[in-house]
Amino acid sequence: MTIRHATADDRDAIARICLLTGAAGSDATGVYGDDAALADVYALPYLDGPGGFALVWDEGAGAVGYCLGTSDTDAFQEWFSATWWPSVADSHPLRTEADETLLRAATDAERMTTPLTEDYPAHLHIDLLPQAQGRGAGRQLIEAAVELLRDRGSAGVHLGVDPANEGALAFYPRVGFSAVPDAPGVMFARAIPASAG
Predict the structure, then answer these.
(1) 77 with 26: CB under 8 angstroms?
(2) How distant, in Å, are the alpha carbons of 46, 63, 115, 151 from that of 39?
(3) 66-79: buried (b, 16+ CB within 10 Å) or exposed (e) per residue?
(4) Model pTM above 0.70
(5) Would strands 122-128 and 156-161 be described as parallel, antiparallel, or unpaired?
(6) What pLDDT, in 10s, does the model give residues 62-100?
(7) What are the residue ranges in the chain where pLDDT is below 50?
(8) Per-residue buried b or exposed e for 35-63, using 16+ beta carbons within 10 Å of the residue's own CB
(9) Using an 8 Å Cβ cutoff, are 42 and 24 in contact?
């Protein structure tokens, strides 16, 4: 088992993990009219966007989990809206009611912009396939991501959680995140103190 930086060869595995965990931690296959849309909104942009990072959990046969994010949420949102989404939007036509919600999120130029970015400029997503869960992979990925963000000088990181994802709601407080009161939706944040010395 190892944590490593994702490469171009991991794109398909990252998209697959996103799909298989995309319904509040469960399989989202068939939820949307196009199974590829979810990864184009919530996973693959982090391989290309400003401040982006992608760490994968590899048990020897390829990625079975990831922690993706950016150290600069505001710059990433601007790039996502101006460059990324226009480059992929035509491949994701509106077909289902679920598509409408997903595609509305993708076209919202302020989706990632929150007052939290002042103190917690980074954000992340973490997803693990069932075979990687319950064995410390999530905690290790979070700590690796926090260390990467510390090295980049980030003061803090935040994330949003689907309120139906009970596992995630229980997980984040165990790895140093605190719930953000009065946030839009369910949000957690974690300060990243500078390295001593």
Answers:
(1) no
(2) 10, 15, 25, 27
(3) bbbbbbbbbebbbb
(4) yes
(5) parallel
(6) 999 999 999 999 999 999 999 999 999 999 988 888 899
(7) none
(8) bebbbbbbbbbbbebbbbbbbbbbeeeeb
(9) no
